[in-house]
Design a protein that fits this description.
The complex is a heterodimer of chains A (136) and B (130). Chain A is an alpha+beta fold. Chain A has a single domain, classed as Nucleoside Triphosphate Pyrophosphohydrolase (Alpha-Beta Complex), CATH 3.90.79.10. Chain A has three helices and seven strands. In chain A, strands 1, 2, 3, 4, 5, 6 and 7 form a seven-stranded mixed β-sheet that branches. The longest helix of chain A is centred in the middle third of the chain and has 13 residues. The radius of gyration of chain A is 14 Å and the shape is globular. Chain B has a single domain, classed as Nucleoside Triphosphate Pyrophosphohydrolase (Alpha-Beta Complex), CATH 3.90.79.10. In chain B, the strands form two sheets. In chain B, strands 5-1-7-6 form a four-stranded mixed β-sheet, sandwiched between helices. In chain B, strands 2, 3, 4 and 8 form a four-stranded antiparallel β-sheet that branches. Classes of the chains: A alpha+beta (136), B alpha+beta (130). Chains A and B meet through strand 5 and strand 6 of A and strand 6 of B.
Chain lengths: 136, 130
């Protein structure tokens, strides 16, 4: 049986809106996603999320805290455990269209109505993320 | 392709002593070394289910997580790259150890920090046990 994969995600908040990208590749082509990606061999989680935000969105990500993890057991890629960071970005958003076709700053209410990649919808049901999604 | 593994561990403290387990002489890495209890997350289980299962298997006791304390990047290890997720919590029941673990003991926290523990568990103690 396949071992679970380990990935990272970023929750980037500005004026009570959160940064998302529309995936332009499989799996979950056309679904919205928070920035992130899988941890490579011998890479530290923080370095992964900095690298992924840069690759996908073209900006420098500065993690300001670790929020928690998410059990994403039933995804198209199988079982995945994701580590989530909050932080800020610097620079002009320039998404790589091989990965992300469109970006959007969305409120929690808007995000809940969007089709989210993997099992990211579970972020809104998990206590680790309650504060960042509710505080104004 | 090789990719990181995910594991989980428990920090159990009673009267200023911390629970350590001794790895058996038959495991692949860190034979006979002391470490914090825990193990790999298996396909299809949540991380919390994994830590409860591991403690039950290793020690025969029930573990109830009370707090998730953080993660540890265990990179460039002989046992392979592992990301571990750590819980504090309480135990219930009588100890009954198995083949994976040959012994367990309660060690004063300061003494445990001076031991050479398996994996990067010294680092875990420094970070999460004040």
């Amino acid at each position: 049986m396949n071992r679970p994969r380990v990935s990272t995600g970023a929750i980037i908040k500005r004026d009570n809106k959160f940064l998302l990208g529309k995936r332009n590749k499989e799996p979950y082509n056309g679904y919205w996603t928070f920035p992130g990606g899988k941890i490579e061999l011998d890479e530290k989680s923080r370095d992964t999320i900095i690298r992924e935000v840069k690759e996908e969105f073209g900006v420098d990500f500065e993690p300001t805290g670790f929020l928690g993890y998410l059990d994403e057991i039933h995804t198209e890629k199988g079982h995945c455990v994701s580590l989530w960071f909050k932080g800020t970005i610097k620079g002009e958003l320039k998404p790589d269209d091989r990965e992300i076709s469109e970006i959007k700053w969305a409120t929690v209410e808007e995000i809940k109505k969007m089709k989210l990649a993997y099992q990211q919808a579970l972020l809104f049901e998990n206590d680790f993320f309650k504060t960042i999604f509710t505080e104004v | 392709m090789k990719r990181p593994k995910i594991s989980t561990g428990a920090i159990v403290i009673k009267d200023s002593n911390i629970l350590l387990t001794k790895r058996s002489p038959t495991v692949e890495y860190f034979k006979d070394s002391w470490c914090l209890p825990g193990g790999h997350v298996e396909h299809g289980e949540t991380v919390e289910q994994a830590i409860k299962r591991e403690i039950k298997e290793e020690l025969g006791i029930d573990f109830e997580p009370t707090e998730f304390v953080g993660y540890e990047d265990e990179v460039k290890q002989v046992s392979g790259h592992t990301v571990s997720l750590w819980f504090k919590g309480n135990i219930k029941g009588e100890f009954k150890s198995n083949h994976e673990v040959s012994e367990f003991k309660w060690v004063p926290i300061e003494e445990a920090k001076k031991m050479t523990l398996a994996f990067t568990h010294n680092n875990v103690l420094e970070r999460f046990v004040k």
